[in-house]
Amino acid sequence: MVKEDVQLSSPYGIDSLGFLVSEVESLRKLLLEVNRKIRDLSEEERYSKQFGLLVSIPGIGRISAITLLTQIEDIARFKNTDSFASYIGLVPNFYSSGEKESIGQITFRGQKILKRILVECAWMTIRFDPALSISYNEYCRRMQPNKAIIRIARKLLNRIYYVLKNEKIYACGIK
């Protein structure tokens, strides 16, 4: 359908429709440019190998992979998965006061964007990775699905660490 095919009774409606159409066209051009830049960045020498490794993990797409790579930079700076998870913020809050200690929900510290991306990737991963899907279903038997997905995001984070550290393509398996 073309803008000229729409019949409106008011000239203001025609103007409004014209503004909306031009806004959608400019957003589409911007989206194409962003996708082109992501593709170019993923093909650069410093990211191409790691990019291929990350997209081999089910649930991690091009945008998620390049965002992770640009934010992490070098996986070697993390000595283990715990320090990597702490950097991202997928660790529980720990409260300690004298003799009282309590462990809370995930911390508010860390890289908020990466944390959100990992949780969204975890939702996709449980659809395509049998091992994580089984784990998610087991967690859901004893906790709420939103809490279970955080645990899956942590498992996904461990897999990302392993794939990048050992430079091996991810292979799906059952446990």
From TrEMBL:
Domain Transposase IS116/IS110/IS902 C-terminal, residue spans: 53-133
One Pfam family linked to the record: Transposase_20
GO molecular function: DNA binding; transposase activity
InterPro entries: Transpos_IS110 (IPR047650), Transposase_20 (IPR003346)
BP term (GO), one: DNA transposition
Top-level taxonomic group: Bacteria
Coiled coil feature spans: none
Record's protein name: Transposase IS116/IS110/IS902 family protein
